[in-house]
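[step 3/7] inverse_fold.run input=structure_tokens len=227
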């Protein structure tokens, strides 16, 4: 299997807005707080953000307080995130609003390390460069790629990028999604149609939404397999 490449992300150069999004996301790994603190000792505004954040781990908060030369706040004085009915939905909406306020370059930075919720938002961004950056996120799952490959709203550039990655086109559900998508370029569909199971070929041959050339190829394969 193709080894996934971990793209470097320099937390010391991220904008305050991007760091705010990362820390706002409840799915963020606690270790990220420490990494951001270690890489931003030269930026007091980021350290103060970490010091006051309710999810900052105790050790990280103490490290930040020492760097700022201020007393570490007592844990009970740190206002916790409210646990209310509908809170997860409100946090997703809040996340969306924060991301919408980012510049294109900031969204691309965020795309490389964002959680599933962040990736879901960025994959609906009108800028294709942002969407392409999400595909480079090492945590993106096959299920997310399959959904992208299946959706007719997915830009052709994204479909081409998915089809170029060997790791993804070794997954049957992704191949099936690509070939069944009317938006997929005929050349890509023809390259992978032979990998489809007979029952899926039969359904493809009846699908009038896909290009005629792909339907004809499916019919030809069905005839060959019956011999």
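[step 3/7] decode complete -> sequence:
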């Amino acid at each position: 299997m193709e080894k996934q490449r971990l793209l470097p992300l320099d937390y010391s150069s991220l904008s305050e807005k991007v760091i705010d999004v990362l820390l706002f996301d409840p799915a963020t790994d606690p270790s990220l707080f420490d990494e951001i603190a270690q890489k931003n000792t030269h930026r007091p505004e980021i350290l103060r953000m970490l010091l006051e954040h309710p999810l900052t781990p105790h050790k990280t908060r103490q490290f930040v307080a020492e760097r700022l030369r201020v007393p570490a706040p007592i844990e009970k004085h740190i206002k916790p995130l409210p646990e209310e009915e509908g809170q997860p939905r409100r946090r997703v909406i809040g996340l969306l609003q924060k991301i919408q306020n980012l510049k294109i370059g900031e969204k691309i930075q965020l795309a490389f390390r964002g959680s599933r919720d962040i990736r879901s938002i960025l994959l609906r961004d009108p800028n294709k460069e942002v969407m392409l950056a999400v595909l480079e996120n090492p945590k993106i799952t096959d299920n997310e790629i399959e959904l992208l490959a299946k959706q007719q709203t997915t830009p052709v550039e994204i479909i081409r990028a998915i089809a170029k990655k060997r790791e993804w086109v070794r997954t049957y559900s992704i191949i099936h999604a690509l070939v069944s998508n009317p938006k997929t370029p005929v050349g890509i569909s023809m390259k992978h149609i032979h990998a489809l199971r007979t029952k899926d070929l039969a359904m493809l041959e009846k699908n009038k939404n896909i290009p005629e050339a792909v339907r004809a190829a499916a019919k030809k394969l069905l005839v060959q397999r019956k011999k």
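[step 4/7] annotate
The mean pLDDT is 89.
The longest helix spans residues 212-226.
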